[in-house]
Amino acid sequence: MRILHTSDWHLGRSFHRxxxxxxxxxxxxxxxxxxxxxxxxxVVVAGDVYDRAVPSLGAVELFxxxxxxxxxxxxxxxxxxxxxxSARRLGVGxxxxxxxxxxxxxxxxxxxxxxxxxxxxxxxxFYGLPYLEPALVREEFEELAARPDRAGQPVGxxxxxxxxxxxxxxxxxxxxxxxxxxxxxxxFVVGGVPSESERDIxxxxxxxxxxxxxxxxxxVALGHLHGAQTLTERVRxxxxxxxxSFSEATHRKTVWLVELGPDGAVGAERIDCPVxxxxxxxxxxxxxxxxxxxxARHEEAWVEATLTDAARPxxxxxxxxxxxxxxxxxxxxxxxxxxxxxASYARRLAGRTDQQIAEDFVAHVRGGAGADGPERAVLRxxxxxxxxxxxxxxxxx
Length: 397
What we know:
It is a single chain. The chain has 397 residues and is of the alpha/beta class. The protein is 31% helix and 23% strand. The chain has two domains: 2-272, Purple Acid Phosphatase, chain A, domain 2 (4-Layer Sandwich); 279-335. The strands form five sheets. It has a six-stranded mixed β-sheet. The radius of gyration is 23 Å and the shape is globular. The mean pLDDT is 89.
């Protein structure tokens, strides 16, 4: 069976205030063409179809047109909701669309109920695990609370994904011998490399789940991280089809064409996505950037310029735009020593989690005495509560 694995379309998203709907439409044209030219049997979309819980009308219309084109091509699709999607909104009409071969899996209660498709070698069961926000799905996975080994422990991503996969394996065990299996999941799996454009899904300071959570199935189609990655031969991220931050300037944007053999063996190749405009990150003093002949190749790219001038130059954006008309981001990082008190606040916080920043603040106001164990737990609980509250408010009409 030939499977086209994609994810993280983020329909409706912009790039530094530049609308990307036309570029997203071009990608979806490419996707439909790829389905036809490569004789794809099924398309899987591993979450973040939209960029926000309440997408724009243009994004919804683009999604609708794409579903019609896939249905007209007679190629089924299996899709899950991601952390950017409103699961309830995306899942509206799922039952009716399923009759046309468009299978939306947005309800955690359906993790163990696959979409079963067949080829000449037999059945393939596709299990959709939508993004599972632990604080919102713990009642669905109430068996977690009953486990003695988890008494008093917070329910995190690993726990809820493990419970969902237990349901997958239980269903698969009851199917005919030789039934192959594919799992779609939206999560941050150990070994994956993030970029700056993914929304944080940290819970209790732990966002990662081990790849071993998915043991027992033939292929795992992951979404959430925006770079295409192979964690194991059977566990892969497709990445986003477009770049959504300058941290993705070196990404090669692709989809996976996965060949699932009759015995469950997996082969995969990457198919390049159309690039609306190259990305470039340039760094140096303004006069040097404007004069450097080696930067000529970036003159038609979307540019992020980091200026290292000791003093802020006059009208830097206007001057940059004369040579690099598609400059979208301007960053100032004067060349000072690491101990310079004027070093940017953002630079000092780079790579630190909200929990670490909060603990640093406690140590600062106490003259160096950091938070103890119970205080760290309180900080963690408050940060989780704020993040979950923001998620609930975003998806509630």
